[in-house]
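Hi F.,

I've been meaning to write this up properly since the lab meeting, where we talked about keeping a consistent format for the predictions we share between groups. The idea is simple: the sequence comes first, exactly as it goes in, then the structure tokens exactly as they come out, then a line or two of notes. No screenshots and no reformatting. I'm using this chain as the first example so we have something concrete to point to.
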Amino acid sequence: MTNPNTAAGTASETVPAGPSLLPGPVPPITRNLAVAVAAVGPLAVAAVRLLLPSDTTDDPAAVVAKTLSHPELQTAVLWLDYLALVTLPLAVLLVAVRAVRASRVLGSVAAVVAWLGFATLPWTAALDPVPLAAQDAGLAQDASVRLLDALTVAGPGGLEAVVFVVGHVLGTVLLGLALWRAVPRWAAVAIVVSQPLHFVAAVVLGNHVLDAVAWALTAVGFAVAVAVARP
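Output, unedited:
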């Protein structure tokens, strides 16, 4: 008669173990690529804020006049807009995943708020080509002003502006707070203060250099978060 204990032992020795459900280590090339994306998006916006010929608080007439006075700067801004649009949403998602892992409730709230804000960036950036495109189409400057003014309020334009400002400023602050224990403290502080500093620099002071510094802080904080926080 077969010994049940012996049979069980033999079966346990011969049955191969199934695949592990635990995630394996992230390959260095994947992690490095993720860190680069997390940094490039905010850095592209930093360059935009530094080079932009107009100020955030300018009315459409001032925006058109300043843009047409510096078309070379605006052309650079348009290319940087494109770079930001293809990298910044992914950068936010990469950081948001780590924020949720670090603090489930606060991280989830932060992810939603930040995504709502940054997801409206294409609508805002869509206004940047208008002055140069209108000039190339043969429109007079006053017609360009009217067109830009109409685009800012067309459809959800007014709502979009509010969602963008509140979402990307408050959302970034919440992301930094959610990551408070998951990243070096200085990196969390950089994320928390960066977008309020951007708001003050852009809306209150009209200081392009300080605005660029604020977005650079976002870039550094995002990159560190993706590099060291658990995905």
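Notes:
Residues 38 and 91 are 4 Å apart (CA to CA).
Residues 6-13, 17-22 have pLDDT under 50 and may be disordered.

If this format works for you, I'll send the rest the same way.

G.
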